[in-house]
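Researcher: Here's the sequence for the chain we discussed earlier.
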Amino acid sequence: MANVYKALSDPTRRKILQMLRERDMTAGEISEHFEITKPTLSRHFAILKEADLIYGDKVQTTITYHLNASVLEDAMVSLLDSFGLLKEDGLNKAIKRMASGKSVMNPRSEPS
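Model: Thanks. This is the structure I predict for it:
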């Protein structure tokens, strides 16, 4: 799980995951959305693959990346569980708090 949290800690990698949530994309299509070098983007792909959040299919010289949603879902469930938000209707309460603009972690917070 540490690899997943490491991968999710970077905004570029989170953006890549958001894009892949919408559809599978080639490395070239993804690179069009960033102003970073290809080696840097390749490193982001490597970290995401290491965490098993994405996988790639290579056809000749083109790699198409896919989101591995089950790993992302497992990480979210694990995180919610570690804060006790899955116990006895805790998830429903958390969802209601988020919908009202209140903090899930701080029940005394006001909407921003």
